[in-house]
Amino acid sequence: MHSSLSLSIASHTSPAIAGSSHISHSSAFGFVPSSPINLRFCGLRREAFGFSALKHSASRRARLSGRTTPRSGNVVAVSSPSDNGTAPKSFDYDLLIIGAGVGGHGAALHAVEKGLRLVGLMCVRRRREERRVSGGTSVLGSSSGLKTAIVEGDVVGGTCVNRGCVPSKALLAVSGRMRELQSEHHLKALGLQVAAAGYDRQGVADHANNLASKIRNNLTNSMKALGVDILTGVGTILGPHKVQVGSSNTVTSKDIIIATGSVPFVPKGIEVDGKTVITSDHALKLEFVPDWIAIVGSGYIGLEFSDVYTALGSEVTFVEALDQLMPGFDPEIGKLAQRVLINPRNIDYHTGVFASKITPAKDGKPVTIELIDAKTKEPKDTLEVDAALIATGRAPFTQGLGLENINVVTQRGFIPVDERMRVIDANGKLVPHIYCIGDANGKMMLAHAASAQGISVVEQVTGRDHVLNHLSIPAACFTHPEISMVGLTEPQAREKAEKEGFEISIAKTSFKANTKALAENEGEGLAKLIYRPDNGEILGVHIFGLHAADLIHEASNAIALGTRIQDIKFAVHAHPTLSEVLDELFKSAKVSH
Ligand SMILES: Cc1cc2nc3c(=O)[nH]c(=O)nc-3n(C[C@H](O)[C@H](O)[C@H](O)COP(=O)(O)OP(=O)(O)OC[C@H]3O[C@@H](n4cnc5c(N)ncnc54)[C@H](O)[C@@H]3O)c2cc1C
Q1: Residue 575 designated active-site
Q2: Is there an atom of ligand 1 within 6 Å of 39 CB?
Q3: Which of 76, 391, 444, 522 could disulfide-link to 28, CB 3.0 to 4.6 Å?
Q4: Index of the ligand 1 atom closest to the CA of residue 154
Q5: Residue 391 in marked binding region
Q6: Cis peptide before 267 (omega within 30 of 0)
Q7: What is the best residue among 154, 165, 484 to mutate for testing ligand 1's pocket, by most ligand atoms within 8 Å of CB?
Q8: Residue 248: what pLDDT?
Q9: Secondary structure (3-state) at 110
Q10: 371 CA to middle of ligand 1, Å?
Q11: Distant-in-sequence, close-in-space partners of 531: CB < 8 Å, separation ≥ 6
Q12: In this structure, what are the phi and psi dihedrals at residue 399, rounded to the nearest 5 degrees?
């Protein structure tokens, strides 16, 4: 099955699956292949991940060695005080993070906050000097003690900053304005007159690219300013406490966090040429705006791109393996989203079909997409379009990581972890001192989830037990209007209620009754609350409407803090604000408590 991303969460322990018509709700936005064949190295430089260059020689003597080539400014060399295979008595670092995406960055910053001192290999000279001063101990010159480093094989910021959240939101900021400026009806209702709206493709692309650079620099500078040094090179785990960085340097660390993220998943039979058949990595560069583009997969990435492309004038055709579009959303919200985001726009769709073969445009011929029935596998149709965007989910990236050296076998590509992000080996045992966060563990493939998991791990390695409640983590789709959610969908809540023997109730409020939304002429929207009427527990909240992504946090914080409806309904909201939609929602719930 090559379909969309699952939005909701029921169990957070097993990753989403592919290869059948079933989509697991376990991976918030993730759709994952049953075996990660066809992985692309999008964004991860092939030469940086030149696996043949990675030598795992067990007999290689660690040494104070030469510098790795600095690519992001603050890098450097590495030392290893002991042989491979045995845990050294002292470590170069207390915490080593592999992958400087948002997960790794979040962990690193929290480590600083917790008093961890982030030290990089550029400190080797300083370290020698300090050793001299401190009489040869391996303690660096910080009274706070712990030392941390972050290893990155490509550029700081990972998917979110360079190829995900950040550039996509820049494009969506443009599409939102274009949409507004193009809506005569909307402008007229506000009494506005605007001459025809237009755009400069390169200008829009530059906006996305500049934003990514800016945030990447901010991230890099924030780590540098706080004393974080970045070790540039591919990180390969050689054994307990030991990581090779690049081709020749080795570092040791008491604790290791794997935060290696994910890459676009491209199903078999689809040929990506990066020009006419593309993934989100290419689409975010906006090198051209096709007249007609097929988007394979109607999860949140596909949906966001449909918002961008239709606002910029493209016609969109969705190809979706399941029987309905946006299968990961709460069904009622999905229906409303279809009515507002799909039906009135220049979008058509084929559901219940796989794109079994996609051939890029060549020699004046268009992109061809062969569709087969998702259930019978019988040929259904052939589409000819100007471009195809493959938005069939993300596959965890763990190649070259050396998991075999710690006896870890991935499950459908993901690194198995327990609820504390501790890595589990092939025998079901915890691997001491090794954690995995973010997309690579597949619990919830979202930027803020990766970061929250990193923070949770830092809490643990600094002596405070912490288990992250994934059911309190919100998710959002930044279309116009936006969609957001936290907790269970209605079908998931009904299933849980039946299993555990309790009742659920539903409350809803419309944006049509909200003054601020009406003032903006944006009354199309719905907020939905799924809760237990017997004790006021919030099970799930789903919002479709203006700034839904911002509004969801009142609900997610309530779930995180265990706040019940009978308490939150007395919270006061400023008038007139969109937040009154949630105020109304909680007030309309009927709790018997
Ligand atoms: C188009 C798009 C839009 C998205 N929009 C949103 C959104 O709006 N909100 C949201 O929450 N999420 C969004 N996401 C998802 C989000 O980007 C990911 O969930 C998030 O980036 C995962 O973070 P991570 O730290 O786990 O991994 P990544 O961000 O993928 O970072 C992993 C890093 O590890 C490095 N690496 C990998 N292997 C090694 C190695 N062996 N040695 C050294 N370095 C290595 C990589 O180069 C990379 O820099 C979006 C994704 C896409 C594709």
Answers
A1: yes
A2: no
A3: 444
A4: 47
A5: no
A6: no
A7: 165
A8: 85
A9: helix
A10: 30
A11: 504, 505, 506, 507, 537, 538, 539, 565, 589, 591
A12: -70, 140
Question: According to the model, what pLDDT value does residue 225 have?
Answer: 83
548-558 per-position pLDDT tens digit:
999 999 999 99
Best mutation site among 29, 97, 160 for ligand 1 pocket (most ligand atoms within 8 Å of CB): 160
The pLDDT value recorded for residue 46 is 30
Question: What residue's CA is closest to ligand 1, atom 39?
Answer: 260
Q: Give the residue from 263, 260, 261, 241 showing the smallest Cα distance to 250.
A: 241
Gap between the Cα atoms of 205 and 167, Å rounded: 9
Phi and psi torsions of 377, nearest 5°: 70, 15
Q: Is the CB of 172 under 6 A from ligand 1?
A: no
- The pLDDT, as a whole number, for residue 88 is 58
> What is the reported pLDDT for 89?
65
- pTM for this entry: 0.85
Predicted local confidence at residue 245, as pLDDT: 97
Interval 514-545: pLDDT, tens:
999 999 999 999 999 999 999 999 999 999 99
Specify the pLDDT at position 112. Answer: 78
pLDDT for the residue numbered 164: 97
Question: Tokens 């690579």, residue?
Answer: 440
Active-site position among 22, 56, 433, 575 = 575
Question: Which domains, and CATH codes, for the chain?
Answer: 1-157+208-265+394-469 (3.50.50.60), 277-392 (3.50.50.60), 481-588 (3.30.390.30)
Tell me, what DSSP letter sits at residue 373?
Answer: E
Which regions of the chain are under pLDDT 50?
A: 1-86, 117-145
